From TrEMBL, chain A:
EC number: 1.21.98.1, 4.2.1.151
HAMAP family in the record: MqnA (MF_00995), MqnC (MF_00992)
Any one GO MF annotation of this record: 7,8-didemethyl-8-hydroxy-5-deazariboflavin synthase activity
Its biological purpose: Catalyzes the dehydration of chorismate into 3-[(1-carboxyvinyl)oxy]benzoate, a step in the biosynthesis of menaquinone (MK, vitamin K2). Radical SAM enzyme that catalyzes the cyclization of dehypoxanthine futalosine (DHFL) into cyclic dehypoxanthine futalosine (CDHFL), a step in the biosynthesis of menaquinone (MK, vitamin K2).
Record InterPro entries: Aldolase_TIM, CofH/MnqC-like_C, Cyclic_DHFL_synthase_mqnC, F420, FO_synthase_su2, Menaquinone_biosynth, MqnA, rSAM
Keyword set includes Iron: yes
Reactions that this protein is recorded to catalyse: chorismate = 3-[(1-carboxyvinyl)-oxy]benzoate + H2O; dehypoxanthine futalosine + S-adenosyl-L-methionine = cyclic dehypoxanthinylfutalosinate + 5'-deoxyadenosine + L-methionine + H(+)
Name used for this protein in its record: Multifunctional fusion protein
The organism's place on the tree of life at top rank: Bacteria
Cofactor-binding details, from the entry: Binds 1 [4Fe-4S] cluster. The cluster is coordinated with 3 cysteines and an exchangeable S-adenosyl-L-methionine.
Start and end residues of each Radical SAM core domain: 364-598
UniProtKB/TrEMBL annotation, chain B:
GO MF, one annotated term: 4 iron, 4 sulfur cluster binding
Gene name of this polypeptide: mqnE_2
PROSITE patterns recorded: RADICAL_SAM
Catalysed reactions, semicolon-separated: 3-[(1-carboxyvinyl)-oxy]benzoate + S-adenosyl-L-methionine + H2O = 6-amino-6-deoxyfutalosine + hydrogencarbonate + L-methionine + H(+)
Organism: Enhygromyxa salina
Entry protein name: Aminodeoxyfutalosine synthase
Function comment: Radical SAM enzyme that catalyzes the addition of the adenosyl radical to the double bond of 3-[(1-carboxyvinyl)oxy]benzoate, leading to aminodeoxyfutalosine (AFL), a key intermediate in the formation of menaquinone (MK, vitamin K2) from chorismate.
Length: 668, 393
């Protein structure tokens, strides 16, 4: 793992926009140090393409690299949360020409650039343009265009591009072009490290260095940069020197130094489009597999590093199981140990004991509700989903249910003894907060049904559309009639897995934050986990641990439900590594690890009623819902449907008394 | 439904098991009814591990059902067609039977499993010719053919003793016998289910004769129809008794009743927990039969995988063509690739062992990477190559 005491050898881009990322690293006063005083980092400045070469050659451990160079090195680990990008115009990645760029017969590419050159090739490809492309030395482009009599254009990047828009009649700002095409931010560069070199302390130091530079030193960096320009200046310089404030604004406003959900979307979109256009190839990645980026420490947050540390006492399966069965808390290390080493039957027995202690009345509950998927339009394009239709779809497969259709489904539900609607749908950009408020008010005015509605992913989507804080969205939905939240969209609550399977979807923290806010408003929710994405035991346990910590804080989760990923027909081509055996292990472990969540639900729609029945002896005390209708997993190959009578039969066969319940697990 | 848990009685039985004492009828019924499923499973697992460790056997075989025309009218059967011209009735020619193996000459199949309806007018030579044709094609292949019910039928129809029938078939190429047709021995249940078919004594007598000739056989029990738990345990005890005498049974295979296209369709099928209990009780009652097999094609691969912790040590084969259960609505894929099967065994923490029919170990899983495992479009755990659609009746 991380070599804590060593000094990390760093190469960083000397362009203005790279400086905030390492400014405080090279300042002896502020550079982060280890406890013994040795500096954490030792920085050398270089051009972007050279940084990548040095990292490849092993001449440095960490480098600020063009994102395009990551393609050849999927083994590199990217520092989370930090990037150099833009959302719209970037000012320093410019194609310039004296005549319209569409007419250029040759475009000179800046030799220092990789991501920008690739982006230009992509934009040309998508416009059906194929001028000759020629790499030239960094800084020569402008002169070549001037000498070409209007036949040439040039891609100029970095500081040399400042003010080009004033000097040429025809320019493309590639940041702006990208944003026009995709509506997404562009990321040009990020910190990448050789695998296993960085630890969480380095990531934190790098993030702090960025925050500090931007917060306090943007002006100082701008001034220093301008002074250097003036000092370098000679008679032939065409590069104008701009006022300091212009440079500072560029750092503060134009360049985006984050690498959060939106930027990750942009990044993956960029790499995916380039791949689709045949411009790049990613070694070792199956053509149908999703492009993904691995981050430093994604699989090993601090708690995990601690959990994996050497212990003074060896772990003992029997002792841990005994404590867990008695309702005592087991820690992350113990949970991992059980997941990896406890025999299934022992795990099951302990979970069964714990279930008996929590629910000793011999009852197993279920609910009659209807799963209504109000729309299947969705912008997130998750690889594991076989339900969504993109908003741009023209085949007529997309739908938004009308009030008439909803009314019919709702009254059928009431007639069948249903007490609740589980309302979930795709992330439809056409539906704003008003739509949901109206829908909920209408439901409450016309039906006596509880609304178990909108998973965190949908809440975040609405908050983004409306540019409102999540808590405000929840407050308004609650006022309109929402009763509780389903725990969907959790998949594996770990960003390393999420980035692979659903890069366009909310992050782990965002998901947890919605639940935190909903619980604070007094709304209860369930919690879910979908496994089988080739996650490690660590991912599974971290998922449970995150839920347990939030539950300690809020107490708002009513139940936990896990199920194996249903792969059929989805675009996520994974080796299917789930099984009934694994399901029972996960469920039994959840019963033990989630000592503060009352109920464990079996997932019979994905496993079948027989395993559902057996699972009641592996820690579960709830048989889920009759699900009068379910569209999502059933489009991916889960075909089990059951009536209340059948559910009751299976509950009885397992030796329990069936009882109908509410969402909050009250017996009806 | 909630039963008191007599842990003292359970502990006494567990002690008997550990001392190697045979369990009696009451013990078996008590275990069947014991509410703590995992304690029962744990005890069965203890026996399983004492006998076989983590080894979990499978073989690479395929089934041929040369005819489904049958004079018996078993209530639980969706396969048999009483008249030769009934819809979906078929009888293959010897050449067609032979062709089934020709189609698989490039596959590493070690066993052919042959079961038929009781055809009213095929000559005895037909059955021998089928065996000869297959052996001529692949002399090394093991032929496991004809249940005791068929042997009994041949003896009656062609006026031969069991021993004569078996000798002639053995000379034509029969190596061992499957365990089918036992259904449930209790006369009360048998009258309701399959009046007129070989009865318990005849079934056992055929196996006794086979064992005397050195022909190894399997044994089965059909459960989940009209029988009581006592009758299930009694069935196991009768098998145990013959085994004590001859030692010729290799494997006991509990068969869960499937009710879709037969005249017992109103019965609910045995479900998850009943299946697991049956495996566990069988493992504990049948101390003198080496193997307990879960026929995954019938109970589904998910329950079969879990059964490996409830006394089962054999998952049958990578079955290539099986008509009988699929006509009765088994919703499992018809074939699992070898890689799929090994993966499921690994996932259950066991070691896959490919065996031949007589349990010689041909290959032991060394943990190397498996081939051919990708998600199939519609069938859980089935590789693309192994995908076979169910026969339409």
């Amino acid at each position: 793992m991380s070599t804590t005491k060593q000094t990390i050898r760093v190469q960083a881009v000397s362009f203005l926009n790279g400086r905030p990322l390492y400014h405080t690293l090279i300042d002896p006063k502020h550079t982060p140090r280890h406890a013994d005083g040795t500096p954490m980092f030792e920085v050398v400045e270089a051009l972007p393409a050279d940084c990548a070469a040095a990292l490849t050659a092993g001449d440095c451990d960490l480098a600020l690299v063009p994102v395009a160079s990551y393609v050849d090195h999927p083994e590199w680990e990217v520092v989370p949360g930090i990037g150099i990008g833009c959302r719209g115009a970037v000012e320093t990645v410019i194609v310039c020409a004296e005549r319209p760029i569409e007419d250029a017969t040759i475009i000179y590419l800046d030799g220092a650039s990789r991501s920008s050159a690739l982006l230009l090739r992509l934009l040309l490809h998508e416009r059906g343009l194929s001028p000759q492309l020629e790499r030239v030395e960094h800084g020569r482009g402008e002169a070549l265009v001037r000498a070409s009599n209007g036949t040439a254009a040039a891609l100029i990047i970095g500081d040399a591009a400042f003010g080009l828009r004033d000097r040429f009649e025809h320019t493309w700002d590639l940041g702006a072009k990208w944003f026009e095409t995709t509506g997404l931010p562009m990321v040009f560069a990020f910190w990448a490290a050789r695998p296993g070199v960085l630890g969480p302390e380095h990531v934190e130091a790098l993030q702090r260095a960025r925050d500090r530079s931007l917060g306090k030193y943007a002006e100082a960096i701008a001034k220093q940069y301008r002074d250097e320009l003036l000092a370098r200046r000679d008679g032939q310089s065409t590069e104008p020197v701009l006022p300091e404030t212009r440079y500072a604004d560029y750092l503060r406003k134009t360049i985006r130094y984050g690498l959060e959900t939106q930027q990750r979307e942009g990044l993956v979109e960029y790499l995916s489009r380039c791949r689709l256009a045949g411009l790049i190839e990613i070694p070792g990645l199956h053509p149908e597999d999703q492009v993904h980026v691995s981050f430093v420490g994604a699989g090993a947050p601090e708690q995990l590093v601690a959990a994996r540390a050497r212990r003074t006492e060896p772990l003992d399966v029997d002792a841990i199981l005994q404590r867990a069965a008695a309702g005592q808390r087991i820690d992350l290390a113990e949970g991992l140990f059980l997941y990896e080493y406890a025999p299934l039957m022992r795990l099951g027995e302990a979970a069964d004991q714990r279930r008996q202690a929590l629910h000793g009345d011999g009852n197993v509950t279920y609910i009659i509700d209807r799963n209504v998927n109000y729309t299947n339009y969705c912008v997130t394009r998750c690889k594991f989903c076989n339900f969504y239709v993109p908003p741009t779809d023209k085949t007529g497969r997309g739908y938004v249910l009308s009030r008439e259709q909803l009314a019919q489904k709702f009254s059928e539900t009431e007639q069948l003894g249903g007490i609740q609607i589980l309302l979930q749908g795709g992330l439809n950009p056409e539906l704003g907060l008003d739509y949901y408020e109206d829908l909920f008010r209408w439901t409450k005015a016309n039906f006596s049904l509880k609304l178990h509605a909108l998973s965190p992913t949908e809440i975040i989507h609405i908050a983004q559309i409306e540019e409102l804080p999540v808590i405000e969205v929840l407050r308004r939905l609650q006022a309109a009639g929402m009763d509780s939240l389903p725990g969907g969209g959790a998949e594996i609550l770990d960003d390393e897995i999420r980035n692979r399977i659903s890069p366009f979807k909310n992050s782990t923290d965002e998901w947890l934050e919605v639940m935190r806010a909903a619980h604070a408003l007094g709304m209860r929710s369930s919690a879910t986990m979908v496994f089988g994405f080739q996650e490690t035991p660590e991912h599974i346990l971290m998922h449970m641990d995150r839920l347990r910590r939030l539950q300690d804080e809020t107490g708002g989760f009513t139940a936990f439900i896990a199920w194996p990923f249903q792969a059929a027909g989805t675009r996520l081509k994974l080796r299917d590594d789930t099984s009934a055996f694994r399901y029972l292990r996960v469920q039994a472990l959840a019963r033990l690890y989630l000592d503060n969540i009352d109920n464990i639900q079996v997932s019979w729609p994905t496993l079948g009623p027989e395993i559902g029945e057996i699972a009641l002896r592996f820690g579960a005390n709830d048989f889920g819902s009759v699900m009068i209708e379910e569209n999502v997993v059933s489009t991916a190959g889960a075909h089990f449907m059951m009536t209340a009578r059948e559910i009751e039969k299976h509950i009885r066969l397992a030796g329990f008394e069936p009882r109908r319940r509410t969402m909050e697990y009250g017996i009806l | 439904m909630k039963l008191p848990k007599d842990t003292t009685r359970f502990a006494q039985i567990a002690a008997k098991v550990r001392e190697g004492q045979p369990l009696d009828l009451d013990d078996g019924v008590f275990l069947y009814r014991y509410p703590d499923l995992l304690a029962l499973g744990g005890l069965a697992n203890e026996r399983r591990e004492a006998l076989h460790g983590d080894k979990t056997f499978f073989n690479v075989n395929f089934h041929i059902n040369p005819t489904n025309v049958c004079v018996a009218d078993c209530k639980f059967c969706s396969f048999a067609r009483l008249e030769p011209d009934a819809p979906a009735a078929y009888t293959m020619s010897v050449d067609e039977v032979r062709q089934k193996l020709v189609d698989r000459l490039d596959q590493p199949v070690t066993e052919v499993h042959i079961v038929n309806g009781l055809h009213h007018n095929l000559p005895f030579d037909y059955y021998k010719d089928c065996l000869r044709a297959l052996k001529a094609l692949r002399p090394d292949i093991h032929i496991k053919a004809y249940t005791a019910v068929e042997i009994h039928y041949f003896a009656e129809k062609y006026g031969l003793s069991y021993e004569q029938v078996l000798r002639e078939l053995r000379d034509a190429g029969l190596d061992s016998m499957p365990g089918g047709g036992a259904e449930i021995f209790a006369p009360r249940a048998r009258r309701k289910l399959c009046r007129g078919k070989a009865d318990a004594e005849q079934w056992l007598e055929v196996h006794r004769a086979a064992h005397r000739l050195g022909i190894r056989t399997n044994c089965t029990m059909l459960y989940g129809t009209v029988e009581t738990l006592e009758e299930r345990v009694d069935h196991m005890l009768q098998l145990r008794e013959l085994q004590a005498e001859t030692g010729g049974f290799q494997t006991f295979i509990p068969l869960a009743f499937h009710a879709d296209n037969n005249s017992l369709a109103k019965l609910p099928p045995p479900t998850g927990i009943d299946n697991l209990r049956t495996y566990a009780v069988a493992r504990l009652m049948l101390h003198n039969i080496a193997h307990i097999k879960a026929y995954w094609i019938m109970i589904g691969i998910k329950t079969a995988q879990i059964s490996l912790s409830f006394g089962v040590d054999d998952l049958d084969g990578t079955v290539q063509e099986e008509k009988i259960y699929h006509m009765a609505g088994a919703e499992t894929p018809q074939a699992l690739s070898r890689g799929d099967l090994v993966r499921l065994i690994r996932e259950a923490g066991r070691v896959a062992v490919e065996r031949d029919t007589l349990y010689h170990e041909r290959w032991i899983d060394d943990g190397a990477a498996l081939e051919g495992i990708r998600v199939d479009a519609s069938l859980p755990y089935s590789s693309e190559a192994g995908r076979v659609s169910l026969p339409v009746v």
